[in-house]
Amino acid sequence: MSDQDRLYQPQNAKDAMRFVQKLFNQYNQAPLTEELIAYHQKLLAYLTNDVTTEVQKQANSEQAEKLTGMIEAMQDWLKIRLSGQPYAGKMQHFKFVPDSQQAHFKTRTIKGGKKANNLRTSARH
After folding, report:
1. pTM to 2 decimal places
2. Domain-by-domain residue ranges, the chain?
3. What whole-number distance in Å separates Cα of residue 71 and Cα of residue 14?
4. Is the distance from CB of 63 to CB of 55 less than 8 angstroms?
5. pLDDT tens per residue across span 99-111
């Protein structure tokens, strides 16, 4: 298998932004290392150079605004993490969403599972 078959090839700018967002959400809580900073800067360079030119070719102003917001959020992540603070949130829809604003779903366990089919027979002994 050639390298070109193994590497991810985005179809358009939005696809590339989704892919970078997915990668960012995977490592944003990881311990800060030199390799992680280099990888983060590589993704930022990809967004600022390649994806920005693709968005400009498409002449989509809404997508351009989302891209600049995404780049700013990723730059803020680096500033926050370098200052020693935790990054309390993730990126959703190409912007930062704090943990406090994310939807939380409560689970409730129902004991017994199934309803008794014949209550009369179970009451008599």
Report:
1. 0.72
2. 8-101
3. 14
4. yes
5. 766 666 777 777 7
